[in-house]
Specification:
With about 230 residues, this protein is of the alpha+beta class. It has six helices and eight strands. The longest helix is centred in the middle third of the chain and has 18 residues. Helix 1 packs across helix 6. Strands 1, 2, 3, 4, 5, 6, 7 and 8 form an eight-stranded mixed beta sheet that branches. A hairpin with a 2-residue loop joins strand 4 and strand 5.
Length: about 230
């Protein structure tokens, strides 16, 4: 377990919100992104680029730590500290909280999808959306065409789905065709740290990541520093 997992994002996100849809090819050592769509409009303007990078980073991290043929849901608490949202499961600085959930499904063929939403968003709809997007992507692009660069396998529908399914009631027809979801148990984790392998620390993964800019890494360090000053005794 690591004790200093922090995430910086703005705290103006409304309830019942979809933030991201991302599709991956889970390879033996790492996951390669195939297509993605994000909505960071509800976050602070100057944090949006870093928020977007961390959405991709955490999505990739959970895919790499989810076994083939399984689903997981990972919850994280967000706490408002000034203009930033610092996430941690034990440090509570203020009374206002927002919970974020990462839903991930890695299929037997190692094609995977991740939806990031708030805790109010129905998990079944999230997993149904993942299944729909993965199905459409794999029908359109044969595996031989996957390069790990989203620009090579564009899927603009993800942006429209991200908007359409902000309202879960739009998913009625979508859910009727996802019969296989009931057959796959969802493993629920209370924090991101619980999906890490023994001995892993989020700080180290972030420092070593080539997917995060130097400004986003500094963004994370600022969250750690802010959170360390706000521990309830």
């Amino acid at each position: 377990h690591f004790k200093n997992f922090h995430r910086l994002i703005s705290a103006r996100a409304p309830a019942m919100k979809l933030y991201s849809i991302a599709l991956f090819d889970k390879k033996s050592t790492e996951a390669a992104v195939l297509a993605h769509a994000k909505d960071v409009s509800s976050f602070g303007y100057f944090q949006r680029s870093s928020v977007a990078e961390f959405m991709d980073f955490f999505s990739k991290t959970v895919v790499e730590r989810t076994t083939s043929g399984s689903r997981q849901s990972i919850q994280e608490q967000g706490l408002r500290v000034g203009d930033l949202l610092v996430a941690h499961h034990t440090h509570i600085c203020v009374s206002s909280q927002t919970e974020y959930v990462f839903h991930v499904h890695v299929r037997q063929d190692n094609t995977a999808g991740v939806v990031i939403c708030d805790a109010e968003y129905p998990s079944r709809v999230a997993f149904s959306l993942i299944a729909k997007c993965v199905d459409e992507f794999t029908r359109r692009y044969p595996k031989s065409s996957w390069t790990g660069k989203p620009s090579d396998t564009p899927m603009p529908e993800l942006d429209s789905y991200l908007q359409k399914y902000q309202k879960p009631e739009e998913a009625d027809s979508l859910m009727k065709v996802q019969k296989d979801l009931d057959e796959t148990k969802v493993i629920l984790h209370q924090t991101m740290e619980s999906v890490l392998q023994r001995g892993e620390k989020m700080e180290d993964l972030i420092a070593k990541s080539d997917d995060l800019s130097s400004s986003s890494k500094m963004f994370y360090k600022q969250a750690k520093k802010a959170n360390s000053c706000c521990v309830v005794q």
